[in-house]
Amino acid sequence: MKTDVVVIGGGVAGSASAFFLALQGLRVVVLDKTRFPRDKVCTSTVNPYAMTYLLKMGVMTELLKDGLLPITGMQGYSYEGSAYRGYYEPHYPFVNYGHTVPRYRLDSAFSNRVKQLSQVTLLEDWAVEEILYHGSRAVGVRGQHGGRPAEIKADFVIDAAGRGSIVARQKGLFEPMTDHVRYAVVCQFEGVEPPDPLFTIGTDDTIGPGYFCVFPVTDSIAIVGFIVDSALYERVKSDPSGWVDAYVRRESWVGREWLSPARRTTEVVTFGPLAFTTKTIAHNGILMVGDTTGFFDPLTGEGIGMAIRSGELAAETVAKLLNGGADWEREHARYEQTFLTEKAESLEQSRQMHRMLKRPAAYNRFVEALSRNQEAANWAARSFANMLPPGERVSGRLFELVTSKQ
User: Fold this and answer.
1) What CATH topology corresponds to 182-271?
2) What is the pTM of this model?
3) Distances (CA, A) of 250 to 182, 271, 346
4) Were 165 and a residue from 59, 110, 136, 161 both cysteine, which residue would form a disulfide, CB within 3.0 to 4.6 Å?
């Protein structure tokens, strides 16, 4: 088989890449080693930035049938239990709400959407084992399709395999972040009574410097997650279900009233360490997208939005190269610089928040300040949702807003 572009991985980043490549008039084959629907560890936050893409791409046409609860902002709780509420206003050019979409549903909706495109072929149960090269440039893949040897030739390869990337593994491109070691503990509850349709993130003396999150899916279902450090994870990993069930029933936990009538309906899934970097994300006719470009922490809820954005940028780069007249090395470097610059704003803000989480007194003061300043709280919500113009999403601006009305 020969195609213009082969995409390794059919999740959000891979499907988004295929969608935007098809808009560029290119033929695409998407390969995934599993079959849809499939699930994975994810807090499943789709913020207004990502939601705007999903609506434009037609992915929400299927998901709106699920009765998803519109999420209009976020709230944060301090170590002491004080809270702020920020809303996605003003919101132009984005929609002013998000959703929590269980990952198996999101991946399924994306894969169903790309199946509708005549220029895209999705092949499941296709495990890539080797990248094919002509000289130094990637020209296809070889592996197993349904347990049988298979090969696909292509003019370009997009790697959307995330942590399972064979390219990164063979070339040693992934490096762990030793200064930020966190683990995810995630499950779903039904019978939840959320007081507000908001994404909720908070901490306390039990899980700090980590944090908990309660993200409503519908008016009675929520995904509950904990991002914890190594010390706590050592205590959790032997019985994560028992630990979660005990934690959410604690008298002192701020979310107890929401979950007291609820029951856990899934196994508790754990995963980690979460944070890693990728040495290079563009080389030899291969562009990496989504989590294959590296991951820090789900605190800002941008994994899905950045996965889609990387696919869009990769598609523009590939189209320019395959239409001729562009320099491969220059366009590879431009893709890498553009995407990583956009991603860096999220990373900087997340790092700032984690520095405060390690200092309870500072984090308590921060939450208290936002609780008294609605403009700053709304700015924080929109910033976390990546709704601000490029270059404006800096922590200094937030602190200016906080201190201006104290």
Assistant:
1) D-Amino Acid Oxidase; Chain A, domain 2 (3.30.9)
2) 0.94
3) 23, 24, 32
4) 161
